[in-house]
Write a structure and sequence with these properties.
alpha/beta; 4 helices; five-stranded mixed β-sheet; Nucleotidyltransferase, domain 5; globular; 122 residues; 32% helix
Amino acid sequence: MIVAGFGYRAAATAESLRDALTRASDGRRVDRLAAPRDKAAAPCLTALACELGLSVLPIDADTLLRPDTPTQAPRVLQARGTGSVAEASALAGAGPGARLLCQRQISCDRLATCALAEGETP
């Protein structure tokens, strides 16, 4: 299973997320979307999920606490306890033993990031 994890600002649109996903997926088929619980029901993400026919997995804040992500954004590390919300969301969504397929990719408008992880979680 391939999970696309997202991090995004409040001003992000479905197009912001779609652009970040396109950059990250590089043609790979994604099975599920993941984002922090406090952002998982945002209109931009629900619109993208609907468009793609995929479900959104909300990731709890304590599950995002991954200081070992390849990307280390100091501001994000301080605010969320991880260097990359997108990478942490993808890894958490893909389950135990998941591995990153793609580090976070940033949308053109710089409002969204997306990373892909592969795992065995159905």
